[in-house]
Specification:
Layout: E1 5-8, E2 19-25, E3 31-38, E4 46-49, E5 59-64, E6 69-73, H1 74-79, E7 82-85, E8 91-100
Antiparallel strand pairs: 1-2, 2-3, 3-8, 4-7, 5-6, 5-8
Length: about 110
Amino acid sequence: MLEGDYIPLSAKSIGPQAWMAWQFVLPDASKSFVQVFRRSNCFHDSAQQCLYGLDASKMYEVQDFGGGSFKASGEQLMREGLSVAILRAPAAKTYQITRIQLFPVRTQHVL
């Protein structure tokens, strides 16, 4: 991820009532990591984080490092966002977003 882009997803704030989020994405849009932080005095227990740098026409698997995964299009993740629920504060979540191939690639055999 060091050769990828760092993208702040939330406004910079040092206040204890704010959500903080950022994203790291590879230049070819094949993989991304998102970290989301709910600070100690944050009233809301969920947030919607629109992602950047993905391929809108591709599908991605979103894996929550705390457990669980789902599939979504790059367009959906960039337009509607990643819905994050963190029930206790302070706490954080980390996600890995990986481009997936829906259909197996057929290889031609040369005789």
